[in-house]
């Protein structure tokens, strides 16, 4: 079975490939489909997705709901983990700490980033995540902690 990164590289080489990959990725964890994510980039140590501001992700005041934003951050983290985790290891999220800094009033871009040094501290790997509005304002930032261990 090809890795998620292999699938991303193959599908994004096609016309509408990022759209196709986004649909396939959303099927892997069906709750990602609820935020209508679009994968923008996936590579070791970095992933980026977009969440369109649609009625289905809005709260009672018309902003993107905090949990929808967290789903986007987790999706970005998952792409990063799939691209960065050694093939003989597995990863599991073990916690998330986030700060809500501003209203999510537009489409959002969710990013996840790590460094080689972060992975050198395995099994506990911190992933820095943030969600940004169209105007560049960071609306949510935090850390998702991964548990990375050898496969048995």
TrEMBL record:
InterPro entries: DUF4442, HotDog_dom_sf. Transmembrane segments: none annotated. Pfam families: DUF4442. This is DUF4442 domain-containing protein. It comes from Aeromicrobium terrae. The lineage of its organism: Bacteria, Bacillati, Actinomycetota, Actinomycetes, Propionibacteriales.
